UniProtKB/TrEMBL annotation:
Cytochrome c assembly protein domain span: 111-311
Region of interest called Disordered, as start-end residue ranges on this chain: 46-71
Signal peptide annotation: none
Entry keywords, A to Z: Cytochrome c-type biogenesis, Membrane, Transmembrane, Transmembrane helix
UniProt topology in membrane: Multi-pass membrane protein
A Pfam cross-reference name: Cytochrom_C_asm
Upper taxonomic lineage: Bacteria, Bacillati, Actinomycetota, Actinomycetes, Propionibacteriales
Subcellular location: Membrane
Record organism: Nocardioides marinquilinus
Name of the molecule in the record: C-type cytochrome biogenesis protein CcsB
Amino acid sequence: MSNTAWETLSNQAIGAAGIVYFLALLVHLAEWASLRQPATARAARTSSAGSEGSEGDVLVATGPETGEEAPSTRTAFLARLGVLLTVIAVVAHFTALVGRGMAADPNRVPWGNMYEFTTAGTFVVALMYLLLRRRLKLDWMAPFVLGFVVATLMVAVIWLHSEVAPLTEALDSYWLVIHVVSAIIATGAFTIGGILSIAYLVKLRRGDATSGPLTRVPSLAVLDRTAYRVHAFAFPVWTFAVLITGPIWAHEAWSRYWNWDPKEVWAFITWVVYAAYLHARATAGWKGRNAAILACVGLATLWFNFIGINYFATNSQHSYASLGAPVVERIDGAPDVARVPLH
């Protein structure tokens, strides 16, 4: 296949992935909607099922319109269908990433600009959800994860998309694989942990619901414990990316381990916030609401660094990695970046 064909395949696959993610989101929303059963109707069914009525009464209580069996079966079917669609979307998403890398000349990893970083990051979020779904009982998270993935992919395709281009000299290094893979894995895990923390705050505000979709969300104690476990996994990976591989690569590219670049500063701020989160839980016994709020602050700094800093920073040496801009030489001989519009 030619490079143009690979790029076309990548664009079509990312579009297909977005559509299937959206369909999966709709299916899971329908699954949640099937759980909205008024308390009076549920009480009436319980009373009918427990009474010694005629056979006809029992049929009314368990029929397809009002009974427990039909909604339960329908809900289970929608849940399985939603997971199947998510798996299909993840496969299409992976195909898009492979096609993006194969479209470059020479072939490379698909992490050369902000569009590619974002599509790779959303892929890891969706994949991590599928991998942790059974282990951590995260089926209830499907609408939140898919909503995030669909929204972020829309931003990537509409505002961040750029043509395939060779890697700049500073990016053409094996550290690209080591540094970016660890950063993306940590970003995916932090995002899952952030969604858990947001769900905790929502359920805390709404109280213990006895009916409706919130009954699917685990208890506050389970949400708090699961969020901590996910963050505890992500933090060492982020540390490896930000404080080890990042400075080493910076020294190799710019002859300095630390440049006070906006991207570096915000990555360190993110590290400090999550370090404070884990430290507070381990030493001060911070749990529940305070920990969840701190985790949400960390998530905000993470994604601001990931995408937002590229819109507000005018002097970032990481601009070439975000916008695909070529590296040029300043008059003083230090490497700089020629900034180009996103589109």
